[in-house]
């Protein structure tokens, strides 16, 4: 059997992390079979290497390997893309078209972001997995194809099944073997290796000496939370490589490239212990971040509206009506722009500091469409406040301080929720 070392060389995979090695090992083990594999992991961790390895080390390697990004194909055309269509089956279907599953006959199909597949497509996919049979859109003829399916997702599939968005029977079919690719924050020892590799790659690409980090900067890099994982690290190194003339990068320089609104989620090597002492659990901390994000979003909306208003450009509003509706949750036009601004500013003032105000956001502005998620956030907020009150023996001043909100806001919340 091919060694992991060779695989890494062949595919340019960097890292020695145990969980990563385990994932690669599993990929090699299942490669010669026809077993369906589901690859799990956050966005940017390197999931796409896994199906490629499996295909390369299977007896299908001389046939096609097709990647389908299920999240990127519109719902109206996905069946036709995957299964093909007959001539005349819908307006614009001027010719018969083979789908990916037919085209890849004998090979491997990688369904990336499989959790995004519409339910009707899931039914067709289940049939292919069970019997190799499919029917083109607009046809009644049953056809057969011989493909291996590997899929990947960064979603929590258990939740998608619970919500009725993903068929349980299909999930079990896709998930005969599961391979999980670890997030970068759990692979701290690989960060230095990845940095070296990417800085050399980009120095060659842009014909410049590779960038280097001071010890302090490397330390920062290793303890950052990397929500975008290796993709984020790679992009960061590319940006710095191109933009910075000085090739030794200090920690201050580095921080300019890392969004500081997303504090490090690393709990083991936190640079700012005091920051975390205010939070009794990881979950509380995450809710706090959610509140902060909501606040930033509100501010951003205010800024956008102010800009539009100051430029007084009717043409712009007309042209971008769709986008505005998406962002603001309602039509924005000259007659209501002032009102909308006033509402946003008002709710921003009320939810002073880091606070989130559901009522204003939902009812007055109609900004949030997802009632149930807002509701559970609200429940969390109540829980959050109660906990802080208990911890501070009901003392409002200290509770407000701990929660990062003004006393006035806390008072209003206590009244509002009847605490
Ligand atoms: N271990 C690794 N070594 C080198 N590059 C990696 C590694 N893991 C991921 N990458 C790179 O990071 C980027 C994101 O990987 P990708 O497979 O697209 O992530 P995902 O599909 O999990 O979102 C790609 O450019 C990939 O080449
Ligand atoms: Mg991907």
Return the CATH topology of the largest domain.
Rossmann fold
Q: Provide a count of the helices.
A: 21
Model regions low in confidence, pLDDT < 50 over at least 5 residues: 263-278, 352-371
For the record, the count of structural domains works out to: 3
Task: Kindly estimate the percentage of residues that lie in beta strands according to DSSP.
Answer: 5-15%
Tell me what the CATH architecture of the largest domain is: 3-Layer(aba) Sandwich
- Name the CATH homologous superfamily of the largest domain: P-loop containing nucleotide triphosphate hydrolases
The shape, in one word, is globular
**What class, by secondary structure content?**
alpha/beta
Task: Give the SSE order as H and E letters.
Answer: HHEHEHHEHEEEHHEHEHHEHHHHHHHHHH
Mean of residue pLDDT? 85
Helix content: 40-55%
Output the keywords.
binds magnesium ion, 419 residues, binds adenosine-5'-diphosphate, alpha/beta, two-stranded antiparallel ribbon, Rossmann fold, 3 domains, 5-stranded parallel beta sheet, Helicase, Ruva Protein, domain 3
Could you characterize what this model shows?
The structure is a single chain. The model is unreliable at 263-278 and 352-371 (pLDDT under 50). The protein has 21 helices and nine strands. The protein has 419 residues and is of the alpha/beta class. It is globular and about 70 Å long. The chain has helices spanning 4-11, 18-30, 49-56, 75-83, 100-103, 119-131, 157-162, 168-174, 188-205, 215-223, 229-243, 251-256, 273-277, 282-311, 314-319, 321-328, 337-350, 358-364, 371-391, 396-403, 407-417; strands spanning 37-40, 65-69, 108-112, 133-135, 142-144, 148-153, 177-180, 212-213, 248-249. Residues 12-15, 41, 43-49, 230-231, 234 line the site of adenosine-5'-diphosphate (ADP).
């Amino acid at each position: 059997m091919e060694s992991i070392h060779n695989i890494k060389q062949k595919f340019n995979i960097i890292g020695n992390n145990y969980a990563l090695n385990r994932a690669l090992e599993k990929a090699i083990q299942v490669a010669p079979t026809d077993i369906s594999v589901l690859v799990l992991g956050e966005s940017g961790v390197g999931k796409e290497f896994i199906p490629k390895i499996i295909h390369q080390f299977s007896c299908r390697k001389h046939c096609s390997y097709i990647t389908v990004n299920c999240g990127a194909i519109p719902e109206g055309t996905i069946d036709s893309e995957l299964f093909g269509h007959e001539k005349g089956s819908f307006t614009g279907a001027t010719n018969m078209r083979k789908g990916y599953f037919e085209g890849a006959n004998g090979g491997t199909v990688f369904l990336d972001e499989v959790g995004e597949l519409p339910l009707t497509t899931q039914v067709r996919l289940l049939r292919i997995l069970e019997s190799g049979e499919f029917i083109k859109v607009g046809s009644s003829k049953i056809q057969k194809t011989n493909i291996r399916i590997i899929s990947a997702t960064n979603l929590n599939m258990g939740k998608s099944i619970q919500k009725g968005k993903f068929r349980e029977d299909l999930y079990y079919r896709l998930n005969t073997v599961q391979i999980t690719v670890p997030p970068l924050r759990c692979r701290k020892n690989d960060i230095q290796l990845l940095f070296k590799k990417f800085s050399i790659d980009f120095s060659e690409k842009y014909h410049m000496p590779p960038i280097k980090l001071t010890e302090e900067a490397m330390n920062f890099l290793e303890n950052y939370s990397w929500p975008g994982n290796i993709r984020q690290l790679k992009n960061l190194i590319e940006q710095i490589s191109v933009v910075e003339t000085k090739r030794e990068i200090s920690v201050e320089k580095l921080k300019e490239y890392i969004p500081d609104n997303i504090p490090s989620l690393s709990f083991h090597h936190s640079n700012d212990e005091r920051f975390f002492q205010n939070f009794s659990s990881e979950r509380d901390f995450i809710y706090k971040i959610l509140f902060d994000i909501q606040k930033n979003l509100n501010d951003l909306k205010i800024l956008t509206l102010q800009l539009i208003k100051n430029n007084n450009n009717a043409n712009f509003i007309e042209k971008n009506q769709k986008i505005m509706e998406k962002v603001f949750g309602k039509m924005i036009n000259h007659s209501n722009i002032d009102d909308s601004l006033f509402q946003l500013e008002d709710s921003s003032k009320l939810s002073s500091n880091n606070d989130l105000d559901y009522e204003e956001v939902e009812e007055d502005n109609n900004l949030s469409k997802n009632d149930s998620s807002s509701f559970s956030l609200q429940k969390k907020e109540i829980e959050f406040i109660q906990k802080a009150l208990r911890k501070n023996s009901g003392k409002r001043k200290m509770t407000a301080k701990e929660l990062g909100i003004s006393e006035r806001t806390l008072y209003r919340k206590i009244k509002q929720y009847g605490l």
